[in-house]
Amino acid sequence: MDKAISIKKVKTPQKKKLIRTEREKKITRLIVTVILVIAAILVYYLIDSGSYVATVNGYRISKPLYQFLLHQQMSATEYEEGLTTQEEKDKFWTTIADGQDPYETAKREALNYSKEFMIQYIKAQESGIKIDAATKQQVESIISSLRSQFTDKQFKETYKVTPSELQRIYEMFSVIDKFKTKYIEENFKPEDYTDEQLKAEYDKEPKLYDSADIGYITLSKRNENGELLSEVEIEKKKLKAQEALSKIKNGEPIDNVIAEYTEDKPTSSETDTNNNSLGKASVKYSQDSMFQYYLEWDLLEWVFDNKPGDADIVETDYHIYVVKIEDRTGFEDVKETVKDSMVKNASEEFYNSALESWGLESKYNIIKNERVYDSISYK
Q1: What is the pTM of this model?
Q2: pLDDT by residue (tens digit) across 56-90?
Q3: Is domain 211-328 given the CATH code 3.10.50.40 in the classification?
């Protein structure tokens, strides 16, 4: 008897539909669109949330602005600390001192200054002062001049921001300056200072206000290549300086002594835009006089520490000077300058006091973007 073999029928799977309905197509497109929108929002959020360090009254302190102000804060600290080499700077910013991290301290100071900066910018906006076309053009000219001196990489290394970012920062600075001027003009009333008050201010440090007329002889301690001369050569020049000083003190006209001894060369009228005479200068206690007459600071220090008629030798790293003070201003000559200075200082104190009071208002509380703020490090 034959065995009955039962063969189970295998169900053939149905083929998937290859043609979708219009409804299915619309659903698919909708899903894809939603996914793309969500992805775009996430990308934008990540980029946008990383673009600012803090907010003040809803205004953002951008990361470039903060980094620029932080760089300014660090540069000021490095100058005060006398740090010149990169090695000195690296050691200072990465060394904990008295339980304080100097870099974190600089970051906090820069954040406080950023708050003050933004408060002033907000106030300027509220008073109707905007970044106009003239401001943009003026700042653009400045930035173009700066860009011509650096490659893009050098520019970023120097200012810690790109040219376009620096332009925006300078435009904001310009608006703040206009607001500050306007606020002082409208709200500050200067005191009517008496002569006694002006004289007392002048007597604190007369050299800040005075100017002096001097005659001087210049003997260089270095050759044309900037190399220091030998001790023998320098000693000979010191003897020449003593001879010249002796003649001046004995009453010989200083113009004659200058012509005989100075190593400075006379400038032609075509190139001398400052109308400088050989060995003659009208100087102030400022770097402007250094640049105008190519004098060293030690010489200016001596001039304003002495009185008319005094003459002496002043030796610096580069020169030996023989100098005589021929004339110098006094209080009556500079009384108006003293007054202007006192008014300016008082107006600055007035404005800073107002800025400090604005900073105490709760609406100007600074809200940090912790993720971005914490990510900023020295290295």
Answers
A1: 0.75
A2: 999 999 999 999 999 999 999 999 999 999 999 99
A3: yes
